[in-house]
Amino acid sequence: MRRKGLSKLIVGVVLIAALVAGLVLMGGCRPAAPEEVAPPEEAKVLKMGFASCLTGTGAVWGISLNVGNQIHIDRINAEGGLLVGGTRYKIEPIIEDTRFEVPLSLTVGEKLIYQDKVKFIQTPGMPIGGAMQDIAHENKVIILEWGVPMCLGPEYPYYFSGMPSGAGLASGFFKVIKEREPEIKRIARIGMNVSWEPTFAGGERKALEQLAPWGEWVGVVLYEPGTTDFTPIVTGVLAKNPDAITTSAVGADQGPIIRTLREQGFTGKIIMVESGYGLPELFEMMKGHEEYLEGCYLLLHTWYPPTPEWLEFKEEFLARGVEWHDSNYYYQWGTPILAEALKIAGTVDDADRIAEAIEELKIPNVGFPDVYPMHYCGLETFGIAHHWAYPKAITQIQNGEPVSIGMAYGELP
Amino acid sequence: MEFSLLMQVMVNTAMLTGVYVLIAVGLNLIFGILKIIQFAHGQLYMMGAFMVYILVTGLGLNFYLALPVAALIVGLASLVIERFFYRPLKGDVLPSLLMGVALLVGLEGSFQLIFGAQEKYIENPLPKVVKLFGVSVPEARLLILVVAIASTIAVYLFLRRTKMGQAMRALTQDPEAASLQGINVNQIRAIGFAIASALAGVAGGLMLPIAYVTPFIGSPMVIKAFLIVILGGMGSLPGAVLGAFILAAADSFGFTFWGPVAALIGYLLVIVMLILRPRGLFGASY
C-alpha cells in the first residue's frame, strides 16, 4: 500500500517536473525578442488590429489577409513610417485568430478594442466583422471587412465591407457573355447554402432579368458547406435542362462541381461567378481533364496575362514562404486604404474624419491593365457608400489557356 | 419525371452508399467493441486522404498501391491513438467523448500546421465515365462502391469466420465474460480499432481523386456516419449498411428534387428513430 502511494508520489513529481520543464522549454523556444532599438524621437506606434483566421475553415483567407497587409506594413515602416498630421507612425499589426467562429470573434474584438486599444480592425469575413460590429461602433473603431456586404447600413458609419458582390459584378459579366454566346436560353445556378448566397443569387437573377429574353433564370440548386460529393447536386441542376450553369463556389468546391457536371454529360457553358482561389488551382484540380474547362467563363482576381505589378506582389508574397492563390491579391488592400485615409484625414484618432476620408478615397488597382480607381460605393443600395468597388477580369478558357476579355466592376448604385 | 433522371438518382444512391458504408461500418465497429463514441473517426478519414496524397504526389506511388499503404498507416496511427488516448480512459463514456473531441481538434490543427489549410488534389486515376441507358457512372465512383462491398463482406467474414472476429463479437456482448475466457481484451480492442480506422482511411483515399483533401474534410463526414449508425443501430454491421443506404437515398433523392431541405431529412429520420426505436433498425450486437 505504502509502496503504491510512494509510486503515485513519484509519478506526480515527475509529471510536475515535466510540466515545468515543458514550460521552460516553450519559453526558450519562443523567437528571441528583437533587440530593443529606440525609435526615432518622432516615430510613434500605430496599432492595426487583425481579427483574422490562422486556423479553422477561414484560415486560407485569414493568412491571405495577414501576409498581404504585412507586405504593405513593411513597405511603409521601411520608409520610416506613415506621416499623419506631421507625426510619423510605425505600424504595428496585432494579429488574432478567430477561427472564423462568431463567439470567438467577439472575444477577439473585445481584446483588440479594450486591451490593445486599436482604432482599426481588418477581418477576412462578414461573420467576424458582424460579431464585433456593435462594440466597434460604440468605441468608434473602424472595421474594414473583406467579406460579403451584409452588415452595411447608415447606423454603422465606421463599418466598411469589401467583397465585390454578385449584384455588382454579374451585370457586366453577363453582358459580355451575352454578346459572345447569344444562343444561351436557360441558365441555372449551383450555390452554397450559406447566408450570403441570396445576395449573390439575387444579384445574378436581377442582372439576367435586364438581359431578357436571353438567359432565362431557371432556378438554383444549393449544396451544404463541407460537401465533397456533388453528384446529387449536379443531377438536380441538370434536371432543370439548362444550357448554361453558373456556379458560385468558394474554395476548392469549383473543381469537383465542374468535373461532376462534365461527367454527367453537361456540354453547355459553365459560368463561374466566383471561381474559388484562382485559375492555377482550378487547372490543378482538373489535372488529366483540362478539357472540362474549355470554353468556361470566369470572373477572376487576376488579369491574364498578369501585369508586372501583380507578378511583383506575388513574388513578394511567395518570398514569405506562404502558399499562393490568386485571391491573395484581393485581401491586401486594407492597409493602403487606411494609410491613405489617415494621411488625408490628418489624424489617427478622429474616427469620423477618417471614415469620411475613406469614403472619398480612390485607390488604383494596378493588377489590371485598365487601372481602375477602387472606391467605396453603394449609397443607394445600403444607405451608406461603404461597399468596396473592386474590379474582376472576365476570362474565358480558350485552347487550354486563360484569356481575359473584359472587366466587370463591383459597382453598386 | 424522366426515366433516365430517376435511374441516375438511383445510381447516385448506390455510389453514395459506398462512401457512407466505408466510414459508418468502422465507426459502428468501434462502438461495438470499445463502447466509445469515436468523435475523431472523421479525422482518420482525412488522414487516409492525406496519406494517399503524400504517397502519390510526394513519393510518386501508384494510386492503387498508395491506397492500401495509406490504410495501413492510418491503422498503425490508430493503434497509437487507442493505446495512449482511449485505453487509459477505460471506456468511460464522457471522458471518451471529450477525448474524441480533443483528438478531432488536435488532429485538424496538426494537419493544418503541417499541410496548410488549402485544398490538395491528385489526378484521377479512373477518369472515364461509363454511359448506360443515358445514365452516367464515373469509374472512380464505381471503384468506391466495389471497395465498399468488398470491405463489408471482408469485415463480415472476419467477424463470423475467424477466431479473432469471434473474440471481437464476444467482446461486444460481454467484455468481462470474454476476458474470463482468456480473450486478450486490450489486444482485440486495439485490432478492432485499427481495422475500423483503416476503413475510414480507405474511404478518404478513395474520395481524394474525385474531391480534394483539407484538414477539415473529416468533421462533416463523421456527422454523416453518426446519423447512419443511429439509423441502422449501434454496434450492428447490417444496420450500418442499411443506414448508409437510407441516408444516401435521402441525400440523392432529396438534393435532386427538393434542394437544400434534403439536408434535414437525415436528421429528421434520426429524431424519429430515436423516439420510436432508440436502438436503431438493427440495434443488436455483431
How does this model look, in words?
The complex is a heterodimer of chains A (413) and B (286). Chain A has helices at 2-29, 59-78, 102-115, 126-131, 133-138, 166-180, 197-210, 231-238, 254-263, 279-285, 308-319, 334-345, 351-360, 379-382; strands at residues 43-52, 82-84, 87-97, 120-123, 142-145, 159-161, 186-192, 216-223, 244-249, 269-275, 297-300, 363-365, 372-377, 387-389, 391-398, 401-409. With 413 residues, chain A is α/β, with parallel strands linked by helices. The N and C termini of chain A lie far apart (82 Å). The radius of gyration of chain B is 19 Å and the shape is globular. Chain B is mainly α and 286 residues long. Chain B has one domain (7-276): ABC transporter involved in vitamin B12 uptake, BtuC (Orthogonal Bundle). The termini of chain B are far apart. The model of chain B has no long low-confidence stretch (mean pLDDT 90). The A-B interface holds A 55-57, 59-60, 63, 193, 220-229, 231-233, 235-236, 239, 251-252, 255-256, 259, 263-265, 277, 281, 284-285, 287-289, 323, 325 and B 2, 5, 8-9, 12, 15-16, 19, 109, 112, 116-119, 121-124, 127, 129, 131, 136, 138, 141, 207, 210-212, 214, 216-217, 219-221, 251-257, 259-260, 262-263.
